[in-house]
Write a structure and sequence with these properties.
Layout: E1 3-8, E2 11-12, E3 15-22, E4 25-28, E5 46-50, E6 58-59, H1 61-71, H2 76-88, H3 90-109
Parallel strand pairs: 3-6
Antiparallel strand pairs: 1-2, 1-3, 1-5, 3-4
Helix pairs in contact: 2-3
The structure holds zinc ion.
């Protein structure tokens, strides 16, 4: 996983972002455009892609939420249903989870 951090005068900004690619542009996950993108050089420093998060730098909250949703798009309600089902039949719950993941990933990409 790569991170986009703002680099200025030898220092990293305290908040980094996850990245995603939209139309060939790699930029922050919290923006759909995505803006800022890799290589952007605003007044406030340069945006750089790093593969290791520098010490003392944390991930932006919106990026964290987006990432969570991407990793697991199932709503809490569906998770609870799967939990209940798993008590009776773990295998059925696994199959159902696969199905739901396909459905919710499709929903996400059609948005
Ligand atoms: Zn962000």
């Amino acid at each position: 996983m790569d991170y986009l951090v703002r680099f200025r005068q030898g220092n990293f900004h305290r908040v980094a972002h996850y990245v995603h690619e939209v139309n060939g542009v790699v930029g922050v996950l919290c923006s759909r455009k995505p803006k800022p993108a890799v290589g952007d050089q605003p007044q406030s420093g340069q945006w750089k892609l790093v593969s290791v998060l520098p010490p003392g730098v944390r991930i932006c909250l919106i990026c964290q939420k987006r990432k969570q949703k991407l990793d697991n798009p199932l709503p809490a309600r569906v998770e609870r249903e799967l939990e209940l089902l798993a008590r009776w039949d773990a295998r059925a719950a696994d199959l159902q989870r696969e199905k739901m993941l396909v459905i919710y990933r499709q929903k996400q990409s059609s948005r």
